[in-house]
Amino acid sequence: MPTLLVSDFNIVCATLGGFITLFGLVSYLFKERYYLSEALIALVFGVIFSPHALNWIRPLDYALHSEENLGSITLYFARLVLGVQLVLAGIQLPSKYLRHEWRTLGLLLGPGMTAMWISSSLLIWALVPHLSFLHALAVGACVTPTDPVLSNSIVKGKFADKNIPKELQRVVIAESGANDGLGYPFLFFAMYLIKYVDHGGQEQSGGAAKAMGCWFGETWGYTIILSIVYGALVGWLAKNLLQWAEERKYVDRESFLVHALTLA
Predict the structure, then answer these.
(1) Comparing C-alpha atoms, which of 146, 156, 159 is closest to residue 35?
(2) 90-96, long-range: CB within 8 Å, 24+ apart, which pairs?
(3) Which residues have CB under 8 Å from 169's CB, separation 6+?
(4) DSSP state letters, 100-168
(5) Which of 4, 181, 186, 258 could cross-link to 141 by cystine, CB 3.0-4.6 Å?
(6) What span, in angstroms and rounded, lies between the C-alpha atoms of 259 and 245?
(7) Euclidean distance between the first and final Cα of the chain, in Å?
(8) How far, in Å, CA of 188 to CA of 119, rounded?
(9) What percent of the chain has a predicted confidence (pLDDT) above 70?
């Protein structure tokens, strides 16, 4: 007698597919009338489907009951989503936008982010008992950058078009895309001090000099500057190759449209 195959794969496909399909039927109602973002709605339903509620989605089972595997899967999936969103944020901006608005973005990404980092860290330090200030600085660095996914709720849709000027929308898009990478110096400033200085440098020897050397060399030199060079080079090559292929009619419409996604 035929039996219904209730496997994890089928459950995940049915749950996610059903949610996306049903939400798509009322997406305009939720986003344009109630001003609820997709991120918030997805979070709520993720909790509902999780092992803490309906138990339809069981991430730990898919990771072979390994917390380490689950952490790695979550990390890399989050990096993929963020990478795609950052590229999409970049292509929404007009040509040479960063060159024209570098003063505004410099103010937001420099003094603005620093003030946000310090104020967030002080608030966390004051509210969380028995937390050292260096650990508060690390936590504050994590909440300082504006998330490009969450910022979509104020730069897209009916609410944004009606209430937010276009120039402000573009500034928010550019700032939210750039500050994820520029949040690294704040985070690793605290992390290196915790590693080499906190509690007398019990984790590693070297002191403050070693911490600042790693901060300037690894964080600024390797992670930030080299990433900017790499991103600019790859973006420039991808743009010119796409223009070359488009001028000679070598690329079809479908491949042209997904070029940015595959690049991300």
Answers:
(1) 159
(2) 90/177, 90/235, 91/260, 92/170, 92/173, 93/170, 93/173, 93/174, 94/170
(3) 154, 155, 160
(4) HSHHHHHHIIIIIHHHHHHHHHHHHHHHSTT--HHHHHHHHHHHSSPPTTTTHHHHSHHHHHHHS-HHH
(5) 186
(6) 12
(7) 47
(8) 17
(9) 94
In sequence order, the 6+-apart residues with CB closer than 8 A to the CB of 204 are 195, 196, 210
SS3 93: coil
Find the helix or strand (DSSP H, E) in which 139 lies. helix 133-143
Six token digits for residue 158: 């009916």
- Positions of the chain with pLDDT lower than 50, given as ranges: none
Distances (CA, A) of 35 to 28, 30, 78, 90, 206: 9, 6, 25, 24, 51
> pLDDT per residue over 58-72, tens digit each?
999 889 889 999 999
User: Quick one: 197 exposed, middle or buried, by C-beta within 10 A (0-12, 13-18, 19+)?
Assistant: buried
CB 85 within 8 A of CB 148: yes
Structure token digits, residue 214: 């790693």
Q: Which amino acid is at 25?
A: L
Query: Tell me, what's the pLDDT at 68?
Result: 92
- Contact between residue 117 and residue 144 where contact means Cβ atoms under 8 Å apart: yes
Give the Cα separation of 31 and 238 in Å (integer).
34
Determine the residue type at 185: P
Rounded CA separation 136/144 (Å): 12
Neighbour tally for 224: CB within 10 Å: 16
Q: Which of 146, 206, 202, 150 is nearest to 179 (CA)?
A: 146
**Residue position matching structure tokens 């936008």:** 97
Helix (H, G, I), strand (E, B) or coil at 64: coil
